TrEMBL record:
Protein name as catalogued: histidine kinase
Any one GO molecular-function label of the UniProt entry: phosphorelay sensor kinase activity
Short name of any one Pfam family annotated for the protein: HATPase_c
E.C. no: 2.7.13.3
Reactions catalysed, as given in the entry: ATP + protein L-histidine = ADP + protein N-phospho-L-histidine
InterPro entries: HATPase_C_sf, HATPase_dom, His_kinase_dom, HisK_dim/P_dom, HisK_dim/P_sf, Sig_transdc_His_kin-like_C
Histidine kinase domain span: 78-304
Top-level taxon: Bacteria
Length: 306
């Protein structure tokens, strides 16, 4: 990886030895483009860290720091777009291959079909994770560059919470999600998709880190002119010193075991949630005790109709 003519690191891609390794495999143009984009993004992050260290050492002005961040956000946006196109192509090709494979199932034994299907499904899952991470980078960049807008409409928040809970339960059938009884309606002015995204993020984190033997519980209540949505889990809890940093960009709590799904992430999810809610003139927060679980919540102003 080269930045401003200087070698700052190596980005190595190698095939893993195993049952599905093809020694004659040639990387496609889309895969090469994805690797190049990833390397450029990694080089930028390394360069950003170096710039921040230099700024701290030389006590640079606030204006210089803002310029560093502006260039960083601009490059993140460009690099993310470059990654998105080849990744979308790869996802489409894998999905198409899986569909064609299913049509050939009568010509293959169950073992042969399974041997071909598993690596394709794994590749698709990883591509979906990468696509989500790229979308988070783009959203965070748009927020910081003030290029993000909301589509506000009057809506019953209870419907949004119920829909998000049902969607997550259908996606994760081996876990229990309980929606506590809600007194309807709970009228709000909101961007429905963004509020649903926040709820799904809270639920994803709760399921990822909590004990699978216990349900995740969702509450929707009214408090002093605000609607409050909370997601409660029975996970490991979060130390007090870490709670202060949860809503910052790129922050991930160290030493927390992932119990469900992938531990891959950029530490942008909660930062984006906070920005969305604050754009709605609401607030976010967490109540957590190590060993006893966590409750993540957000509030939105209630908009009573005349």
């Amino acid at each position: 990886m080269v930045q401003h003519g200087e070698l700052i690191g190596l980005f190595i891609i190698a095939k893993m030895e195993g049952e599905y390794t093809d020694v004659h495999y040639t990387y496609s143009n889309e895969e090469i483009a994805l690797a190049q984009g990833t390397a450029r993004l990694a080089a930028l992050v390394i360069a950003q860290v170096r710039l921040l260290e230099e700024w701290a050492a030389t006590r640079a002005t606030e204006q210089a720091l803002q310029e560093i961040n502006r260039r960083y956000d601009a490059f993140i946006s460009i690099a993310s777009h470059e990654l998105k196109t080849p990744l979308t192509t790869i996802k489409g090709n894998v999905e198409l291959t899986l569909r064609r494979l299913m049509k050939l199932n009568h010509n293959l034994s169950a073992a042969q079909l399974d041997q071909l299907r598993k690596p394709l499904e794994t590749a698709l899952q990883r591509a979906q994770v990468q696509a989500r991470m790229i979308e988070e980078l783009l959203e965070a960049s748009r927020i910081r560059m003030n290029k993000f807008t909301l589509s506000m409409t009057p809506y019953d928040l209870a419907d949004i919470v119920e829909e998000a809970t049902k969607d997550m339960q259908q996606a994760v059938t081996d876990r229990a999600i309980i929606l506590a009884p809600v007194e309807r309606p709970v009228p709000v002015q909101a961007d429905i998709d963004r509020i649903k995204q926040v709820i799904l993020n809270y639920l994803t984190n709760a399921l990822k880190y909590s004990n699978p033997e216990y349900p995740v519980v969702v509450h929707l209540t009214r408090e002093d002119g605000f609607a409050r949505v909370s997601v409660q889990d029975q996970g490991p809890g979060i130390p007090l010193e870490a709670q202060k940093s949860l809503w910052q960009r790129f922050y991930r709590v160290p030493g927390i075991e992932v119990r469900h799904g992938s531990g891959t992430g950029l530490g942008l999810g909660l930062y984006i949630c906070r920005e969305f809610i604050e754009l709605h003139h609401g607030h976010v927060g967490v109540q957590s005790t190590p060993g006893e679980g966590s409750t993540f919540w957000f509030t939105l102003p209630i908009k009573e109709t005349a």
